[in-house]
Amino acid sequence: MIELRPEESTRIVVLSGAGLSAASGVPTFRDKGGLWEGHRVEEVATPGAWLKDRSLVRRFYDERRERIATVLPNPGHDALARLQTRWGPERVTLVTQNVDGLLTKAGAPEVIEMHGSIMHLRCEGSEEHPHIQVAGAQPKNKRCSVCKSLMRPDVVWFGEVPREADRVHDALANCTLFLAVGTSGRVYPAAGFVQLARSAGALCIEVNPKPSRGPFDHALSEPAENMLPELVGAWLNED
Ligand SMILES: [Zn+2]
User: In 3-state terms, what secondary structure has residue 168?
Assistant: First the structure.
């Protein structure tokens, strides 16, 4: 077990990827050869695809949203939510590549969703205009309350820039512990995150059933839903 002294100076950044949500049964849509209704996933998840055929892209996300609505957070999400609740978002920055909203569903107070959320819609004209929540299928002619442009899924598509990069960068440059969960530490973004955290002198831990052999101090080859409750339980002195 990795000992941490939870003194005031401990500042944690957790980056989570698909491996965190796998045990919840979140569909990746990549298992069947990466195709969806004969389209490569990349073809329905780009700004160009949206301009070319909005109803196709809407259906793709409606289907994912309807399936995600039926899944529940697993003990890995719950553990991260408890950690942030206890130590506060100032000390625990939760960054996720997942668009499933499960960390929020688990009760995490503040999640940086770098690839957006499938449970929200945004204005196709401006990311700054109000985002809205959506439960089931996206209403076809829903328009922005500010500029009347059509609303689109609030996810970061292939070719678009991830959210809140400055805030994530600041958190990494000031952290004492970096945890990569269920995402490969050798490819973007985790590979960049671990480099930044190392430069800041942080302890770097990877939780992944198949460790990536990236530059981590510890590689814990366990699924997130097993390992995170153990780690967080020890850090928070839970029974
Ligand atoms: Zn707008």
Answer: helix
Cα-to-centroid distance, 35 and ligand 1 (Å): 31
Rounded distance from Cα 3 to ligand 1 centre (Å): 48
Tell me how crowded residue 120 is: count the other CB atoms within 10 A of its CB.
17
The CA distance from 43 to 33, in Å, is 14
Distance separating alpha carbons of residues 6 and 207, to the nearest angstrom = 20
Q: Which of 24-38, 64-78, 215-229 has the lowest mean pLDDT?
A: 24-38
pLDDT in tens, 32-54: 566 777 888 888 999 999 999 99
Crossing angle between the packed helical segments 165-173 and 190-199, to the nearest 10 degrees: 40
What is the CA(204)–ligand 1 centre distance, in A?
40
Three-class SS of 44-85: HCCHHHHHHCHHHHHHHHHHHHHHHCCCCCCHHHHHHHHHHH
* pLDDT confidence band for 26 (50 / 70 / 90): confident
Complete domains list, the chain, with CATH: 12-25+72-115+160-235 (3.40.50.1220), 35-68 (no CATH)
pLDDT for residue 29 = 56
Residues serving a catalytic function are 115
Distance 123 CA to ligand 1 centre (A): 5
- What's the pTM value of the predicted model, to 2 decimals? 0.92
Confidence of residue 5 (pLDDT cuts 50, 70, 90): low
